[in-house]
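Lab notes, practical 5.
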Amino acid sequence: MKVPFIDILRFEKNFLETVTQKSAELLKNGHFVGGPVVGQFEGDLKNYTQTQFAMGCANGTDAIQIALRAAGVKKDDKVMLPDMTFWATFEAVVNVGAIPYTLDVSRETLHLTVASVKEGIEKFKPQALILVHLYGWACPETMEIRKICKEKNIILVEDCAQAIGTKINNESLLKNATVATTSFYPAKVLGASGDAGGIFTTESSIANAAKILINHGRTGHYDHGMIGWNSRLGAYEASFMVEALKHLDAKLESRRIVCDQYRNKIKNPALKFIAPAQGVWENGYLSVALMEPSTRPAFIEYLKSKEIGYGTVYPGAMSEQPGAKDFLGGKISHGHADWIAKSVINLPCFAYMTQEEIDFVIKTVNEYK
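Output from the prediction step:
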Protein backbone atom coordinates (compact mmCIF):
# COMPACT_ATOMS: atom_id res chain seq x y z
CA MET A 1 0.00 0.00 0.00
CA LYS A 2 1.20 3.52 -0.82
CA VAL A 3 0.41 6.21 1.78
CA PRO A 4 1.33 9.82 0.94
CA PHE A 5 2.56 12.24 3.59
CA ILE A 6 -0.39 14.48 2.73
CA ASP A 7 -3.32 14.32 0.33
CA ILE A 8 -5.11 17.65 -0.20
CA LEU A 9 -7.60 16.22 -2.68
CA ARG A 10 -9.90 14.37 -0.29
CA PHE A 11 -12.88 16.64 -0.45
CA GLU A 12 -16.29 16.24 1.11
CA LYS A 13 -19.20 14.95 -0.94
CA ASN A 14 -20.36 17.58 -3.47
CA PHE A 15 -17.63 20.04 -2.33
CA LEU A 16 -16.04 20.39 -5.77
CA GLU A 17 -19.41 20.78 -7.44
CA THR A 18 -20.36 23.53 -4.98
CA VAL A 19 -17.13 25.54 -5.35
CA THR A 20 -17.26 25.17 -9.13
CA GLN A 21 -20.79 26.59 -9.15
CA LYS A 22 -19.75 29.44 -6.83
CA SER A 23 -16.75 30.22 -9.06
CA ALA A 24 -19.01 30.40 -12.10
CA GLU A 25 -21.21 32.92 -10.27
CA LEU A 26 -18.16 35.09 -9.48
CA LEU A 27 -17.13 34.99 -13.12
CA LYS A 28 -20.61 35.93 -14.25
CA ASN A 29 -20.77 38.86 -11.81
CA GLY A 30 -17.23 40.08 -12.44
CA HIS A 31 -16.15 39.59 -8.82
CA PHE A 32 -12.42 38.79 -8.99
CA VAL A 33 -10.71 40.77 -6.22
CA GLY A 34 -12.60 41.81 -3.10
CA GLY A 35 -16.37 41.97 -3.25
CA PRO A 36 -19.11 40.51 -1.06
CA VAL A 37 -17.64 37.02 -0.81
CA VAL A 38 -14.45 38.35 0.83
CA GLY A 39 -16.58 40.09 3.45
CA GLN A 40 -18.57 36.89 3.94
CA PHE A 41 -15.41 34.85 4.49
CA GLU A 42 -13.94 37.37 6.91
CA GLY A 43 -17.18 37.38 8.89
CA ASP A 44 -17.35 33.58 8.98
CA LEU A 45 -13.69 33.41 10.00
CA LYS A 46 -14.20 35.98 12.75
CA ASN A 47 -17.08 33.95 14.16
CA TYR A 48 -15.23 30.64 13.97
CA THR A 49 -12.10 31.93 15.69
CA GLN A 50 -14.03 34.13 18.17
CA THR A 51 -11.82 37.12 17.34
CA GLN A 52 -12.76 40.79 17.32
CA PHE A 53 -11.35 41.44 13.83
CA ALA A 54 -10.39 39.01 11.05
CA MET A 55 -8.98 40.10 7.68
CA GLY A 56 -7.90 38.13 4.65
CA CYS A 57 -4.78 38.88 2.65
CA ALA A 58 -2.76 37.36 -0.18
CA ASN A 59 -0.63 34.86 1.78
CA GLY A 60 0.68 33.92 5.19
CA THR A 61 4.02 35.69 4.80
CA ASP A 62 2.33 38.97 3.94
CA ALA A 63 0.10 38.42 6.96
CA ILE A 64 3.10 38.44 9.30
CA GLN A 65 4.67 41.47 7.61
CA ILE A 66 1.43 43.43 7.70
CA ALA A 67 0.74 42.44 11.31
CA LEU A 68 4.21 43.59 12.39
CA ARG A 69 3.77 46.95 10.70
CA ALA A 70 0.17 47.41 11.86
CA ALA A 71 1.18 46.65 15.46
CA GLY A 72 3.89 49.30 15.36
CA VAL A 73 7.14 47.55 14.44
CA LYS A 74 9.46 50.05 12.73
CA LYS A 75 12.70 50.01 10.77
CA ASP A 76 15.66 48.71 12.80
CA ASP A 77 13.44 47.50 15.67
CA LYS A 78 14.66 44.32 17.34
CA VAL A 79 12.23 41.43 16.87
CA MET A 80 12.75 38.11 18.65
CA LEU A 81 11.44 34.84 17.22
CA PRO A 82 11.98 31.12 17.87
CA ASP A 83 14.88 29.41 16.14
CA MET A 84 12.49 26.56 15.26
CA THR A 85 9.94 27.82 12.73
CA PHE A 86 9.38 28.21 8.99
CA TRP A 87 11.61 30.64 7.11
CA ALA A 88 8.68 33.01 6.46
CA THR A 89 8.70 34.08 10.11
CA PHE A 90 12.34 35.16 9.83
CA GLU A 91 12.12 36.80 6.43
CA ALA A 92 8.99 38.75 7.37
CA VAL A 93 11.00 40.56 10.05
CA VAL A 94 13.70 41.42 7.51
CA ASN A 95 11.15 42.48 4.89
CA VAL A 96 9.69 45.16 7.19
CA GLY A 97 13.17 46.54 7.87
CA ALA A 98 13.46 45.17 11.40
CA ILE A 99 16.26 43.01 12.82
CA PRO A 100 15.61 39.35 13.76
CA TYR A 101 16.98 37.79 16.94
CA THR A 102 16.44 34.07 17.45
CA LEU A 103 15.66 32.30 20.72
CA ASP A 104 16.11 28.62 21.47
CA VAL A 105 13.10 26.39 22.13
CA SER A 106 12.33 23.57 24.55
CA ARG A 107 13.29 19.98 23.70
CA GLU A 108 10.15 18.85 25.51
CA THR A 109 7.46 21.17 24.10
CA LEU A 110 9.33 22.25 20.92
CA HIS A 111 8.16 25.83 21.58
CA LEU A 112 9.41 28.97 23.24
CA THR A 113 9.33 29.09 27.03
CA VAL A 114 8.92 31.89 29.55
CA ALA A 115 12.56 31.35 30.51
CA SER A 116 13.78 31.74 26.92
CA VAL A 117 11.70 34.87 26.40
CA LYS A 118 12.98 36.43 29.62
CA GLU A 119 16.55 35.55 28.65
CA GLY A 120 16.06 37.24 25.29
CA ILE A 121 14.49 40.35 26.78
CA GLU A 122 17.38 40.71 29.21
CA LYS A 123 20.03 40.24 26.52
CA PHE A 124 18.55 41.96 23.48
CA LYS A 125 16.13 44.62 24.83
CA PRO A 126 13.70 43.98 21.93
CA GLN A 127 10.74 46.00 20.73
CA ALA A 128 8.77 42.94 19.57
CA LEU A 129 8.41 39.16 19.78
CA ILE A 130 6.87 36.69 17.34
CA LEU A 131 5.44 33.71 19.22
CA VAL A 132 5.07 30.77 16.83
CA HIS A 133 2.52 28.01 17.51
CA LEU A 134 3.84 24.94 15.69
CA TYR A 135 2.46 21.51 14.74
CA GLY A 136 -1.21 22.34 15.30
CA TRP A 137 -0.58 23.03 18.99
CA ALA A 138 -0.32 26.18 21.07
CA CYS A 139 2.81 27.18 22.92
CA PRO A 140 1.98 25.85 26.42
CA GLU A 141 3.20 29.04 28.11
CA THR A 142 1.23 31.37 25.85
CA MET A 143 -0.67 33.12 28.63
CA GLU A 144 2.46 33.85 30.64
CA ILE A 145 4.33 35.12 27.56
CA ARG A 146 1.41 37.40 26.66
CA LYS A 147 1.50 38.80 30.20
CA ILE A 148 5.26 39.40 30.11
CA CYS A 149 5.06 41.22 26.77
CA LYS A 150 2.26 43.44 28.06
CA GLU A 151 4.18 44.28 31.24
CA LYS A 152 7.38 45.03 29.31
CA ASN A 153 5.58 46.97 26.55
CA ILE A 154 6.83 44.52 23.93
CA ILE A 155 4.77 44.10 20.77
CA LEU A 156 3.61 40.48 20.52
CA VAL A 157 2.63 38.98 17.17
CA GLU A 158 1.51 35.34 17.19
CA ASP A 159 2.25 33.24 14.12
CA CYS A 160 -0.63 30.75 13.92
CA ALA A 161 0.02 29.45 10.41
CA GLN A 162 -0.40 25.89 11.72
CA ALA A 163 -2.88 26.59 14.51
CA ILE A 164 -6.33 27.42 13.16
CA GLY A 165 -8.85 25.52 15.30
CA THR A 166 -6.37 25.05 18.16
CA LYS A 167 -7.61 25.81 21.67
CA ILE A 168 -5.85 26.71 24.90
CA ASN A 169 -7.63 26.46 28.24
CA ASN A 170 -10.75 25.48 26.28
CA GLU A 171 -10.85 28.74 24.30
CA SER A 172 -9.84 29.57 20.75
CA LEU A 173 -6.12 30.33 20.72
CA LEU A 174 -6.85 33.40 18.59
CA LYS A 175 -9.62 34.80 20.76
CA ASN A 176 -7.45 36.94 23.04
CA ALA A 177 -4.35 37.38 20.91
CA THR A 178 -3.60 41.08 20.49
CA VAL A 179 -2.49 40.39 16.93
CA ALA A 180 -2.03 37.04 15.20
CA THR A 181 -1.64 35.67 11.70
CA THR A 182 -2.26 32.52 9.75
CA SER A 183 -1.66 30.92 6.38
CA PHE A 184 -4.32 29.40 4.15
CA TYR A 185 -1.80 27.64 1.92
CA PRO A 186 -3.56 24.56 0.47
CA ALA A 187 -1.72 22.10 2.74
CA LYS A 188 -2.94 23.80 5.92
CA VAL A 189 -5.93 22.49 7.91
CA LEU A 190 -8.00 25.31 6.39
CA GLY A 191 -6.53 25.70 2.94
CA ALA A 192 -7.41 27.80 -0.06
CA SER A 193 -7.13 26.60 -3.65
CA GLY A 194 -4.05 28.83 -3.95
CA ASP A 195 -2.23 31.23 -1.64
CA ALA A 196 -4.04 33.25 1.02
CA GLY A 197 -3.47 34.45 4.58
CA GLY A 198 -5.26 35.96 7.54
CA ILE A 199 -4.71 38.58 10.24
CA PHE A 200 -6.56 38.67 13.58
CA THR A 201 -6.59 41.27 16.32
CA THR A 202 -8.47 42.49 19.37
CA GLU A 203 -7.49 46.14 18.66
CA SER A 204 -9.46 48.34 16.27
CA SER A 205 -6.40 50.54 15.60
CA ILE A 206 -4.37 47.52 14.47
CA ALA A 207 -7.26 46.24 12.35
CA ASN A 208 -7.64 49.62 10.64
CA ALA A 209 -3.91 49.87 9.94
CA ALA A 210 -3.82 46.31 8.59
CA LYS A 211 -6.71 46.99 6.20
CA ILE A 212 -4.87 50.02 4.85
CA LEU A 213 -1.56 48.17 4.49
CA ILE A 214 -3.22 45.25 2.68
CA ASN A 215 -4.47 47.58 -0.06
CA HIS A 216 -1.50 49.74 -1.11
CA GLY A 217 -1.70 51.93 2.00
CA ARG A 218 -4.92 53.42 0.66
CA THR A 219 -6.85 55.89 2.79
CA GLY A 220 -8.98 56.87 -0.23
CA HIS A 221 -9.16 55.58 -3.80
CA TYR A 222 -6.21 57.71 -4.89
CA ASP A 223 -5.03 58.70 -1.42
CA HIS A 224 -2.21 56.71 0.11
CA GLY A 225 -1.49 57.36 3.75
CA MET A 226 1.00 54.53 4.20
CA ILE A 227 3.47 52.46 2.22
CA GLY A 228 1.62 49.17 2.01
CA TRP A 229 1.41 46.03 -0.08
CA ASN A 230 -0.75 44.69 -2.87
CA SER A 231 -1.98 41.87 -0.64
CA ARG A 232 -5.70 41.75 -1.28
CA LEU A 233 -7.52 38.45 -0.91
CA GLY A 234 -8.93 37.18 -4.18
CA ALA A 235 -12.63 36.46 -4.50
CA TYR A 236 -12.05 32.92 -5.76
CA GLU A 237 -9.93 32.03 -2.74
CA ALA A 238 -12.48 33.57 -0.39
CA SER A 239 -15.31 31.67 -2.05
CA PHE A 240 -13.39 28.38 -1.81
CA MET A 241 -12.69 28.95 1.89
CA VAL A 242 -16.28 29.91 2.73
CA GLU A 243 -17.20 26.38 1.72
CA ALA A 244 -14.11 24.78 3.28
CA LEU A 245 -14.77 26.45 6.63
CA LYS A 246 -18.15 24.70 6.81
CA HIS A 247 -16.33 21.35 6.99
CA LEU A 248 -13.38 22.39 9.15
CA ASP A 249 -14.52 20.76 12.40
CA ALA A 250 -14.95 17.41 10.64
CA LYS A 251 -11.52 17.72 9.05
CA LEU A 252 -9.86 18.55 12.36
CA GLU A 253 -11.53 15.63 14.10
CA SER A 254 -10.33 13.23 11.41
CA ARG A 255 -6.77 14.56 11.78
CA ARG A 256 -6.84 14.27 15.58
CA ILE A 257 -7.91 10.63 15.28
CA VAL A 258 -4.79 9.93 13.21
CA CYS A 259 -2.47 11.62 15.74
CA ASP A 260 -4.12 9.85 18.67
CA GLN A 261 -3.83 6.44 17.04
CA TYR A 262 -0.16 6.91 16.26
CA ARG A 263 0.59 7.97 19.84
CA ASN A 264 -1.42 5.11 21.35
CA LYS A 265 -0.65 2.25 18.98
CA ILE A 266 2.92 2.76 17.77
CA LYS A 267 5.12 1.04 20.32
CA ASN A 268 8.45 1.19 18.50
CA PRO A 269 10.98 2.57 21.01
CA ALA A 270 12.95 4.26 18.21
CA LEU A 271 10.25 6.96 18.06
CA LYS A 272 9.20 9.23 20.89
CA PHE A 273 5.81 10.76 20.04
CA ILE A 274 5.18 14.28 21.29
CA ALA A 275 1.73 15.36 22.43
CA PRO A 276 0.40 18.87 23.04
CA ALA A 277 0.78 20.11 26.59
CA GLN A 278 -2.03 19.87 29.13
CA GLY A 279 -4.67 22.50 28.44
CA VAL A 280 -3.88 22.58 24.70
CA TRP A 281 -6.40 21.11 22.23
CA GLU A 282 -4.67 20.27 18.95
CA ASN A 283 -6.01 20.61 15.43
CA GLY A 284 -4.14 17.55 14.11
CA TYR A 285 -2.01 19.47 11.64
CA LEU A 286 1.02 17.23 12.13
CA SER A 287 1.99 14.04 13.87
CA VAL A 288 5.30 14.70 15.62
CA ALA A 289 7.89 12.22 16.86
CA LEU A 290 11.56 12.55 17.77
CA MET A 291 14.37 10.09 17.06
CA GLU A 292 18.04 9.99 17.88
CA PRO A 293 19.57 12.00 15.00
CA SER A 294 21.91 9.17 14.00
CA THR A 295 18.97 6.78 13.53
CA ARG A 296 16.67 9.01 11.47
CA PRO A 297 18.29 8.55 8.01
CA ALA A 298 17.89 4.77 8.10
CA PHE A 299 14.27 5.06 9.25
CA ILE A 300 13.52 7.48 6.42
CA GLU A 301 14.95 5.00 3.91
CA TYR A 302 12.76 2.30 5.46
CA LEU A 303 9.64 4.47 5.03
CA LYS A 304 10.59 5.13 1.41
CA SER A 305 10.99 1.41 0.77
CA LYS A 306 7.47 0.85 2.12
CA GLU A 307 6.06 3.78 0.08
CA ILE A 308 5.04 5.72 3.18
CA GLY A 309 5.40 9.47 3.00
CA TYR A 310 7.08 11.45 5.76
CA GLY A 311 8.10 14.95 6.78
CA THR A 312 10.89 16.58 8.78
CA VAL A 313 9.20 19.79 9.95
CA TYR A 314 11.54 21.59 10.20
CA PRO A 315 14.98 20.26 9.16
CA GLY A 316 17.01 23.36 10.04
CA ALA A 317 17.20 26.11 12.67
CA MET A 318 16.59 29.64 11.41
CA SER A 319 19.90 30.97 12.66
CA GLU A 320 21.74 28.31 10.65
CA GLN A 321 20.06 29.06 7.31
CA PRO A 322 22.48 30.47 4.71
CA GLY A 323 20.19 33.43 4.10
CA ALA A 324 20.22 34.44 7.78
CA LYS A 325 23.84 35.41 8.24
CA ASP A 326 23.66 38.92 6.78
CA PHE A 327 20.52 39.84 8.73
CA LEU A 328 20.62 38.04 12.09
CA GLY A 329 21.06 40.54 14.90
CA GLY A 330 21.89 37.91 17.50
CA LYS A 331 20.85 34.55 18.86
CA ILE A 332 20.54 32.55 22.04
CA SER A 333 21.20 28.88 21.44
CA HIS A 334 21.47 26.00 23.86
CA GLY A 335 21.53 23.52 20.98
CA HIS A 336 17.86 22.54 21.30
CA ALA A 337 16.52 23.83 17.96
CA ASP A 338 19.42 22.29 16.08
CA TRP A 339 18.88 18.94 17.85
CA ILE A 340 15.13 18.97 17.15
CA ALA A 341 15.79 19.77 13.49
CA LYS A 342 17.96 16.66 13.21
CA SER A 343 15.53 14.51 15.25
CA VAL A 344 11.99 15.34 14.16
CA ILE A 345 9.99 12.94 12.00
CA ASN A 346 6.40 13.39 10.84
CA LEU A 347 4.28 10.45 9.69
CA PRO A 348 1.37 10.80 7.22
CA CYS A 349 -1.47 12.88 8.63
CA PHE A 350 -4.25 14.50 6.65
CA ALA A 351 -8.00 14.85 6.67
CA TYR A 352 -9.99 11.71 5.90
CA MET A 353 -7.15 9.20 6.02
CA THR A 354 -8.73 5.76 5.87
CA GLN A 355 -8.43 3.35 8.78
CA GLU A 356 -6.68 0.97 6.40
CA GLU A 357 -4.01 3.59 5.70
CA ILE A 358 -3.60 4.40 9.39
CA ASP A 359 -3.30 0.72 10.31
CA PHE A 360 -0.73 0.16 7.56
CA VAL A 361 1.47 2.99 8.84
CA ILE A 362 1.18 1.76 12.43
CA LYS A 363 2.00 -1.85 11.50
CA THR A 364 4.92 -0.83 9.29
CA VAL A 365 6.46 1.46 11.90
CA ASN A 366 6.07 -1.13 14.64
CA GLU A 367 7.88 -3.69 12.45
CA TYR A 368 10.91 -1.42 11.96
CA LYS A 369 14.07 -2.67 13.67
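Observations recorded by the TA: Residues 53 and 201 are 5 Å apart (CA to CA). The mean pLDDT is 98.
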